[in-house]
Amino acid sequence: MNDLYREAQALLPLPPATFHILLAVADDDRHGYAIIQEVAERTGGALRLSAGTLYRSIQRMLEQGLIVEPRQRPARDDDDERRRYYRITPLGTAAARAEAKRMADLVGMARARGLVPGKV
Amino acid sequence: MRAYRWLLRLYPASFRHEYGGEMTAMFARRLRDAGGPISRIGVWTSAVGEILANATLVHVDILRQDLRYTMRTLARTPGFAITAVLIVALGIGATTAAFSVTDFVLIRPLPFAAPDRLVKLYERTPGYGRVELSAPNYRDWKQASAFERIGLYHLMTANMLGAAEPVSIAGAAVTADLFPTLGVQPLIGRLFIEGEDRQGAPGVALLSYRLWQTQFGGESGILGRRVTLNRESYAVIGVMPREFRFPFSDTQLWTPMRFGEQDDTDRNNNWLYSVARLRPGVTFAQTRAELQTLAARSRQQYPKENANVDAALFRLSEEVSEQSRLLLIALCGAAGCVLLIACANLANLLLARAIGRRRELAVRTAIGAGRERMIRQLLTESLLLAAVGGAVGVVVARTAVPLLTRLVPVTLPTAGVPAVDSRVLLFAMALTAITGIAFGLAPVLRIGGDAEIAGLREGSRSGGGRREPLRAALVVAEIMASVVLLISAGLLIRALWTIQAIDPGFKADRVLTLATGLMVPQYGKVAAREAFYSRVLSEVRSLPGVVNAAYGSYVPLSRKMRGGIWPVAVDQNPLLPGTRDVAFIRFVTPAYFATFGIPIKAGREIGEADAQDHKPFAAIVSESFVKRYWPGETPASVIGRRMTFAFADRVVVGVAGDVRMRGLERQAEPQVYLSHRQVEDDSIPGYIPRSLAVRAATDPAAFAPAIRAIIRRADPLLPVSDVSPLTELVDDDKSSRQAQLRVIDMFAAIAFVLAGIGIHGLLSFAVSQRAQEIGVRIALGAQPGDILRMIVAHTARLAVAGVVPGLALAYAAGRSMQALLFGIAPSDLPTYAAAVALTMLMTLAGTAAPTLRALRVDPIAAIRTE
Questions:
Q1: Do residues B170 and B296 both lie within one domain?
Q2: Which residues partner with B125 through β-bridges?
Q3: What distance in Å separates residue A107's CA from the closest CA in chain B?
Q4: Is residue B262 very low, low, confident or very high in pLDDT (cuts 50, 70, 90)?
């Protein structure tokens, strides 16, 4: 666990695209297009990942071991042969958690200075 | 959709294969969702921008990854990495340095306006390709319609007063047309104008930038300042630009040449140098033809004086001597050999490494690494080696270029020193990079089909057993190039030895020479000179430790004056106008021969009795004079013979040994020595003895201050210059050659070592690859002697294959640089034998370690791995 923590710390800060992709696959395996849709939905359409950015991030995340391509694919009606699914790894979870904590700490510091989110 | 797929090609192939399909599907979906044509255009635009940006980033990602991987693999094999970088650095550095200097001297245009239209005009007579112009011939020939303008100059040395201290300065007297012909403007002030170069005009002078800076502190009020040059007053009218050097790189001062065109009617007084600018559109060949016509007309009009005299035309850029030119070309050839050997070595190293890595590559292919990814990775490695090697090569070149500047002749009218040439650097780097790529990729290209299975097989003999013709060819090329370099260097060494063994004709040890600028009219009178010499010489001789001292016209081998010939007629023959019978003329004081250690072969030397009123005048001739004008006679038998020389009848009173006046590499020409008193007052002022030589019992340089003090007491306004031991002049004469030799030696040594490394590398690898085969042979009963014979035979075949064409090429190289060889034949047997022996030795030395390893192969162990 300790090793995982240290390894995840070494990856911080995560690029925003990476963080969003981790969030998108956190609860369920997803394919590329589904990730894009999930991110867009979650951010209310503010962030629309392009295909290039998505797969460049995915390639790097695969190399870093943040996600894997699972052997069994979820049985779904709309499953398509060409689609590749991605699943979060323990390291991926650890990295997402560490990044979230890093940002929470930052927000905490800002709040201590009176810079409260929501106030403009 | 096809357009989108085509755009995807901007991504690396591996990325495209992996994600291209999904990206295309995604794009199709977005296009479908878009609806109207406007939003479709929007989808397209954003897709193009997105691909451009992301493809670049993916490439950078891969590059970073490959670099990391390369650093890791290179760090695992530091020996390979360091060797490869050093080889590349040596090759690139040597080539760049050699070419930078060559470009500076031979290729770069001279720093004048339209330099290709500048020519030099000379006279040509049998045996002399470049003779200065006589004034009447100049007047006749300058009419040539091809010339837009023509300027004249001659060299001079000026004693300058009026600056920090009396100094002797190398300068040139020029006509007003010279600077406009060259197309230069002064930095400040003005150039000479028409009329300032006539007799009786007020004295004006132009300074070089350096002289202005060193002697006048660069002061701005220099214009109009008066200086004294050779006791005449001159006004400074301008300073030339910093880069301007003419005619030589050490020229510091220009004065108008007081050339009364009608004064000089002697067609045999050759003393004018000329530079002409051709009219635009006139070719060099047309000009030469026109001048030959003019010269032919002169021969008809003046059959006596101009017999055999032709006009000779050279481009200004061709003023670099044949020796310098040849030498630089030889240098480039040597550098090319070094680069070739370096590339061959690099190729060899990479091939060996690649063959060793076939297994690794096969494994990576098997686990799914694409060919394209591996090619990219190997390319990264090759380019990294070339780049690091190139960076170290820049250091090598920057160190080497200053060492090579000794090869830049002083006669080059240009400022500055050669600098590392970035174009050559890039060229050499590109060449090594291509070598790296070509040979680094070979194994990947060979992998394909089922080779990867073979590579994976347990105990595969990765490349063993199979012959490696490519690597053998590389080693043969290396041996060949090193043979060429060794022989060329050997021939030059032999030439230097021959020159070092040359007797200059005098004994240079413990002799100090210096120049005192005795000027006319003050010292034009014999009596005035005599008073000065006898005072200075007697005081110098009375210094404890001084053995002897004498004055003479010039010091042999001096940097300033190596010529000085005069017409002569022997016995009762009349002195013909325009005669080509000439001899060196030197006026000397008594004890001249004793001081220089020039042997007297018969008769006596010049003595106190040879005074102005003592007739007949005495002459001492050299042995070469006897050989030329009294062939068949002995030194003793010519004593008492008569000659007409230097405006007087003279009788031979002695014969002296030959002195190599013009340089150690030049044959001694006929020489005549005269008493400085046996000449009319104010006659032949150019040869007034101005050089003092002092022979001491100990280190002569220690006497310089005392001698200077003596001269200052005798004439406080006389500048003393060129103080140097005579041995230094002799060494100087050899030094350019020694410098040349050091450079060529350096290249030969580098090539030799590189070739040795290459041969060692090849054989070590070959033996390790054949360990199993050797083990089997031993198991089957082969004796160590058989194994030894097998390996030595292999090596010998390679050596012979390299040496034979190497010999032929070396002979061709030797022929083309024959002018540098000082009589050593380009087929000099000892040199060839030594070079071949060295090469064989190097090859054998390269073989020794691998052979021993082969002999120690344990048959059981070797076979067990099978």
A1: yes
A2: B128
A3: 31
A4: low
Pair B554, B702 in one domain: yes
A31 interaction partners in chain B (CB closer than 8 Å): 22
Contacts of A61 in chain B (CB under 8 A): none
Query: Closest residue of A to B12, CA-based?
Result: A56
Owning domain of residue B648: 518-718
| Residue B206 phi, psi (nearest 5) | -110, 140
What is the identity of the amino acid at B222? I
pLDDT for A74 equals: 59
Higher pLDDT, B632 or B445: B632
Q: Evaluate if residue A77 carries a pLDDT over 60.
A: no
Q: Name which of A47, A56, A80 to mutate to probe chain B: the one with the most chain B Cβ atoms within 10 A of its Cβ.
A: A56
Give B364's pLDDT tier (boundaries 50, 70, 90). Answer: confident
CA-nearest of B156, B164, B159 to B213 is: B164
Q: How far is A92 from chain B (nearest CA, A)?
A: 20
**Chain A residues lying within 8 Å of B368, measured CB to CB:** none
DSSP 3-state of B343: helix
d(CA A55, CA A63): 12
Minimum Cα–Cα distance from B54: chain A residue: A52
HSE value, Cβ hemisphere, 13 Å, CA-based, for B173: 17
Residue B495 has pLDDT above 70, yes or no: yes
Give first-to-last CA distance, chain B, whole Å. 54
What's residue B498's pLDDT? 83
- Residue B672 and residue B689 in contact, taking contact as beta carbons nearer than 8 Å: no
* φ, ψ at B81 (rounded to 5°): -60, -45
Q: B341: left (phi > 0), else alpha (psi -120 to 50), else beta? A: alpha
| pLDDT per position as a tens digit, B333-344 | 888 888 888 888
| Residue B136 domain-assigned (yes or no) | yes
Residue B399 neighbours by CB distance under 10 Å: 11
Domain boundary among B718, B753, B779: B718
For chain B, how many structural domains are there in total? Answer: 5
**Chain B window 39-58: which residues touch A at a Cβ cutoff of 8 Å?**
46-47, 50-51, 53-55, 57-58
Interface size, chain A vs chain B, as Cβ–Cβ contacts under 8 Å? 53
Contact assessment for residue B204 and residue B196, using Cβ atoms and an 8 Å cutoff: yes
| pLDDT for the residue numbered B629 | 93
Q: What is the ipTM of this complex?
A: 0.82
Q: What is the pLDDT of residues B557-607, one digit of tens each?
A: 876 667 777 888 888 888 776 667 888 899 999 999 999 999 999 999 999
The predicted structure's pLDDT at residue B567: 84
Residue recorded with tokens 């290709």: B116
| Closest Cα in chain A, distance from residue B356 (Å) | 27
Q: What is the pLDDT of residue B415?
A: 60
Rounded to the nearest 10 degrees, the angle between the axes of helix B37-76 and helix B78-102 is: 100
> What Rg do the C-alpha atoms of chain B give, in angstroms?
37
Chain B residue numbers touching A84 (CB-CB < 8 A): 22
CATH label, A2-112, candidates 1.10.3720.10, 2.120.10.30, 1.10.10.10, 3.10.580.10: 1.10.10.10
With contact defined as beta carbons under 8 Å apart, do B147 and B280 qualify? no
Give the C-alpha distances (Å, rounded to integers) separating B119 from A1, A81, B138, B316, B408.
Answer: 86, 82, 14, 5, 21
Virtual torsion, Cα B469, B470, B473, B478, nearest 10 deg: -140
Q: How far apart are CA B560 and CA B691, in angstroms?
A: 11
Mean pLDDT, residues B81-94: 84
In a domain, B316, yes or no: no
Residues B129-152 pLDDT 10s:
778 888 888 888 988 899 999 999
What pLDDT is recorded for position B163?
66
Distance CA B111, CA B420 (A): 18
pTM more than 0.90: no
Mean pLDDT over B153-162 rounds to 80
